[in-house]
């Protein structure tokens, strides 16, 4: 844990306040200017607040996995040198790397992979470095934790990589604890510590719309909209189609994209079986 009175890189971190544009959803989709009017998590189900209250006194099924994931550092702890080693893996890991600190309930973020371009601003929008990829949604995830558990999150200093692939391989020849690195995926061959992928809540141009043209936020609310929309539509009259998006010919990831191309070929396979299908 980092002592709040011994801030490291105090001049290097950008404070992200809860009223910053990084924490607010644009009022009008597609606008990059400062027209923000709603907290992203404000539209979530009341279940989230109820669940957060329960977590104050009850352990979840994930607790044993958390203990297992953190076991390599149980005896030695996580040192400042280990964090700096993780930060310097920006040329090894696949995606952006953030180093973040939580001190007295406030979030400070350093965009490691864009250090040559300066500190990214808290305002999102076209042309702003903070709007790149998963960076803003990772910030939203951390800010939501602080919002849901006020005063309960201890001071900490951590590093997270935001790529699609694992980064910290298990190395039997390494002496001591592995590099501490949060990420969005892991496996039995890697030490990456998994955190929820908030980008699923951030695809604003893919939101379902309610009858009044407002985006429907959260899985529960979207499920209700779909059920109302299709409750009177028989399955036989629906088009047998699914929507998937993503690159299929990225030279950096030939193995991944070979699998993606197999998905793209699904319409042809379905058509051969007599189903109506078309790629989108």
TrEMBL record:
Keywords: Transferase. InterPro entries: CAP10 (IPR006598), O-Glucosyltr/Glycosyltrsf_90 (IPR051091). GO terms for molecular function: transferase activity. Residues 63-259 form the Glycosyl transferase CAP10 domain. Pfam families: Glyco_transf_90. The keyword Lipid biosynthesis does not apply. PANTHER family: KDEL LYS-ASP-GLU-LEU CONTAINING - RELATED, PROTEIN O-GLUCOSYLTRANSFERASE 1. Belongs to the glycosyltransferase 90 family. This is Glycosyl transferase CAP10 domain-containing protein. It comes from Prototheca wickerhamii.
């Amino acid at each position: 844990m980092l002592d709040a009175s011994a801030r490291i890189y105090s001049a290097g971190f950008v404070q992200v306040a809860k009223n910053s544009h990084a924490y607010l959803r644009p009022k009008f989709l597609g606008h990059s200017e400062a027209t923000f009017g709603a907290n992203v998590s404000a539209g979530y189900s009341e279940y989230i607040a109820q669940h957060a209250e329960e977590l104050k006194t009850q352990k979840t099924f994930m607790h044993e996995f958390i203990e297992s994931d953190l076991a390599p550092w149980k005896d030695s702890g996580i040192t400042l040198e280990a964090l700096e080693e993780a930060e310097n893996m920006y040329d090894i890991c696949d995606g952006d790397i953030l180093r973040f600190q939580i001190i007295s309930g406030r979030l400070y973020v350093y965009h490691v992979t864009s250090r040559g371009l300066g500190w990214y601003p808290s305002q999102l929008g076209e042309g702003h470095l903070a709007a790149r990829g998963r960076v803003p949604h990772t910030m939203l995830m951390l800010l939501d934790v602080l919002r849901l558990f006020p005063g309960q999150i201890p001071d900490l200093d951590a590093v997270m990589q935001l790529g699609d692939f694992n980064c910290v391989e298990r190395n039997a020849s390494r002496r001591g604890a592995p590099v501490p690195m949060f990420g969005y995926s892991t496996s039995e061959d890697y030490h990456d510590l998994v955190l929820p992928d908030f980008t699923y809540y951030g695809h604003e141009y893919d939101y379902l719309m309610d009858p009044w043209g407002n985006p429907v936020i959260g899985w529960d609310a979207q499920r209700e909209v779909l059920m109302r929309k299709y409750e009177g539509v028989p399955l036989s009259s629906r088009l047998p189609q699914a929507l998937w998006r993503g690159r299929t010919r990225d030279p950096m990831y030939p193995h991944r994209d070979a699998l993606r191309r197999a998905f793209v070929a699904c319409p042809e396979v379905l058509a051969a079986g007599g189903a109506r299908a078309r790629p989108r």
